[in-house]
Amino acid sequence: MAETEKEPVKLQKEGIPEGLWMRCPDCGDMLFRKVVEEALHVCPGCQHHFRVSARVRIAQLVDEGSFEERHADLEPVDALKFVDKKSYQDRLESEQEKTGNPDAAVCGKGFIKGRPLILAVMDPTFMMGSMGSVVGEKITRAIEDAVEERLPLLIVSCSGGARMQESALSLMQMAKTSAALARLDDAGGLFVSLLADPTTGGVTASFAMLGDFILAEPKALIGFAGPRTIWNTIKVELPEGFQRSEFLEEHGFVDFVVHRRDLRSEIARLIDFCGKE
Ligand SMILES: [Zn+2]
User: Which range among 14-28, 122-136, 180-194, 230-244 shows the weakest confidence by mean pLDDT?
Assistant: First the structure.
């Protein structure tokens, strides 16, 4: 699991409430938080795309009030009694309290510009969007819903990869989600995969790269292992930006790099293009 989270620096000055201003980690500008939020969490200056939680992402993508959450009752368990710096059970509890969500994915049905679809969205605010059994199961159920209801499927990936605290149980989700996608493909379904910053590890190595269309947000980190791991393994200097959306688009791994403000119209266009409704 890659620990690549970069939190915006908060200005802590007397008289200015914490969090009213934020610094863009890319251009360094001080930004009024409200302005950034209104721009779909994109820096108005340099267009840096901030990471957003699953619920914010869903609100940005679907027609207002159209989201119907499903499979919300799935709760993670600490089957392996895993302990690193703290126990997995304690970690889960503090993440649940922090985010108000049981785990790192939210799924359901919604509409984008009037077109119905099933969507599953990963949440980078919950254990860096890592994929454990619950995330894998929710994504699988979303895929199965899309098959049964003959609806297009959108999965938004934003993840550090498989969740080490669930070890092999987490790795099994790669096979499970991929097998479910094969059934969606057999049924003639449409799968649009959107890669947000970051999409790495076991998520990249399974469903994220199996889209009929693979979209990515600008400058998103997309890869399997991190640059340092690759360097330590093969000792070869890799080209500048080789794990960013634009490089991957150029080399055919990603179909389109899409600015966040254009995602709704781009997804609607792809649904229409494939004649799925
Ligand atoms: Zn900026």
Answer: 14-28
- Average pLDDT rounded to a whole number, residues 164-190: 97
Q: How far apart (Å, rounded) are the C-alpha atoms in residues 155 and 189? A: 13
Q: Counting beta carbons within 10 angstroms of the beta carbon of residue 201, is it exposed (0 to 12), middle (13 to 18) or buried (19 or more)?
A: buried
Distance from residue 22's CA to the centre of ligand 1 (Å): 10
Residue pair 143/150 in contact by the 8 Å Cβ criterion: no
Q: Is the pLDDT of residue 10 over 90?
A: no
Token pair recorded at residue 258: 């899409």
Count of Cβ atoms closer than 10 Å to residue 28 Cβ: 10
Q: How far is the CA of 50 from the centre of ligand 1 (A)?
A: 9
Ligand 1 centre from 9 Cα, in Å?
12
- DSSP string covering 5-34: --PPPBP--TTS-TTSEEE-TTT--EEEHH
Residue 228's pLDDT is 83
pTM over 0.85: yes
Instruction: Kindly give the distance from the C-alpha atom of residue 31 to the centroid of ligand 1, in angstroms, as a whole number.
Output: 8
Separation of CA 155 and ligand 1 centre (Å): 27
Which residue blocks in 125-166 are alpha helix, DSSP H? 133-149
Q: What are the residues whose beta carbons fall under 8 Å from the beta carbon of 72, sequence distance 6 or more?
A: 102, 106
